[in-house]
Amino acid sequence: MATVDLTVMGAGAFGLSVAFVCAARGAKVRVIEKRRVGAGSSGGIVGALAPHAPERWNDKKAFQFESLVMAEQFWANVERVSGLSSGYGRTGRLQPIINERGLALAHERAAQAAELWQGKAQWRVLPYTDFADWAPPSPTGYVIHDTLTARLHPAQSCAALAGALTALGGEVVTGDAKPEGAVLWATGYEGLMALSAQLDQFVGHGEKGQALLLKYAAPDMPQLFADTVHFVPHADGTLAIGSTTERDFDAPDTTDAQLDGLLERALAAVPQLAGAEVLQRWAGVRPRAKSRAPMLGEYPGKPGHFIANGGFKIGFGVAPKVAELMADLILNGKDSIPPAFRVEANL
Q1: Ranges for the FAD dependent oxidoreductase domain (predicted)?
Q2: Fewer beta carbons within 10 angstroms: which end of the chain, N or C?
Q3: Rounded to whole angstroms, how far apart are CA atoms 347 and 344?
Q4: Using one digit for the tens of pLDDT, what is the confidence trace for 230-288?
């Protein structure tokens, strides 16, 4: 008889979140991670939990919205059980509006958010002067302020999830170990490449991302998004800047000169960061499924095996809802995964 009900392969955002929820429901859970907790892109530094624009509503945007609304309670539970901080905070986000066309579009989206976000968050167009000490200059004099965007510290969140799992009687094993019971594969971009090879067809790949961590304390300030750069103030007195994207890469675990260009753009957009000490230069490879949506469901041709992969840039943002749906499927056989998120959407 198996000593565990569920083995999770991979200790990243999806794997650990599903493991935590299943353990909280009473399952015996073991996570196997060949390197370390948060070894892949889930161990990064940015942690921007930002919604898609409230227009052209679809399953992906609705799923993300529901998960972002769930996030505050989800991470509060993780912190309560583990005694560790995830760095979560729903601090909102500011975006300068650069021209009149953008201003008109921002007002349209505000009206759509009023309906689609169900009063649970706001997308507002406000004078730049309301945030002049923090927001980048805005050519129109206005900024978008959304109250749905949140932040967390990815590496700290992975550690908190692992701590919560062990507090519930689960375990995290580092190295090679044989899976028992039901098996969830949450193995990042390497898992997508392995599945592509097994099926002899492309289902996903990895895209390299890079980011910087500065010593700059603004823990209660909103995130900024300017010149395609994310600025994420963390609760611990640091500020993350990210990120770059590369589809072709030879050395996925190293940083390179692109970060120098990123820093230049960041300082041009937010001059008050000049002189802040660079604490960390980070690079990692994010898993991107063929459909560009997370890949969830049963593993093709492997009864009792499941997949949760392809979080790409929204992995932590959708993790709370991914965890609930996958726990329903694995533990209870209840399948309510949206069509756009199903494994077969990538086949």
Answers
A1: 5-329
A2: N
A3: 5
A4: 999 999 999 999 976 666 655 544 557 789 989 999 999 999 999 999 999 998 899 99
